[in-house]
Amino acid sequence: MTAPDEIRAALSRPYRHGAHTSFAGITCDGPLDLSGFVLSGVDFSGAHFPDGVDASGAQFIGLSWFTGARFAGDARFSGATFGSDARFEEAQFDGQADFSATDFRGIARFDRARFAQGVTMPGVTCNGNLSFEGARVEGAALLSEGECMGGLWLDHVALPPETRFDGTQVHGRLWLRGGQIGNRAIRAEDFDLAYGYVWT
């Protein structure tokens, strides 16, 4: 078990290019409050957060890996900024997953992630590719009013019938092959604007 204060102390050190702190595989002993923090690079791959994470308004500088992490409580990243790639592949979100107005300045990868209580992502911006390949979402998915500069990848994603994309703009490729909303295929018409190629 790793104490939240230990994690906060390690991540409050000044950022050095190419350096990061590894908390891969740890179990956090209590809720982790990173709200408003400016974080140096961190690897949380395979980490377990039984009481959730609040990173609302946080600034992630450098490495930001949550590959295979499990959030048993709520995961709050609303208003956060990821200065580099944000990797959430195969992450498990058991509670609420809130990425409202999050700014991804690299790629944002949620490939094969599992969302047990939905995902909230209105107003998100992503300079790189936003990818949900093979992800599974239960509950509701609010993906409206977003802007994906590097395209949107929804290969074989499973989204709930209540999914909303209204107001979302996709600059670059829109990949929809095998993607489902409820029991129907995702269509290009589900998006207000898609400027690049569309694969269905």
Put the structure in a nutshell.
This protein is mainly β.
Beta-strand percentage range: 25-35%
Oligomer: single chain
Q: Give the helix proportion (percent range).
A: under 10%
The total count of strands amounts to: 31
Question: Structural class, from secondary structure content?
Answer: mainly beta
For the terminal residues, how far apart are their CA atoms?
Answer: 45 Å
Topology:
Blueprint: H1 4-11, E1 21-22, E2 32-33, E3 38-39, E4 42-43, E5 48-49, E6 53-54, E7 59-60, E8 64-65, E9 70-71, E10 75-76, E11 81-82, E12 86-87, E13 92-93, E14 97-98, E15 103-104, E16 108-109, E17 114-115, E18 119-120, E19 125-126, E20 130-131, E21 136-137, E22 141-142, E23 147-148, E24 152-153, E25 158-159, E26 169-170, E27 174-175, E28 180-181, E29 184-185, E30 193-194, E31 198-199
Parallel strand pairs: 1-4, 2-6, 3-7, 4-8, 5-9, 6-10, 7-11, 8-12, 9-13, 10-14, 11-15, 12-16, 13-17, 14-18, 15-19, 16-20, 17-21, 18-22, 19-23, 20-24, 23-26, 24-27, 25-28, 26-30, 27-31
Antiparallel strand pairs: 28-29
Explain what the structure shows:
The chain is mostly beta strands and 200 residues long. The protein folds into two domains: 1-92; 107-200. 4% of the residues lie in helices and 31% in strands. It is built from one helix and 31 strands. The longest helix has 8 residues, at 4-11. The protein is globular and about 50 Å long.
Descriptive key words:
single chain, 200 residues, 9-stranded parallel sheet, 31 strands
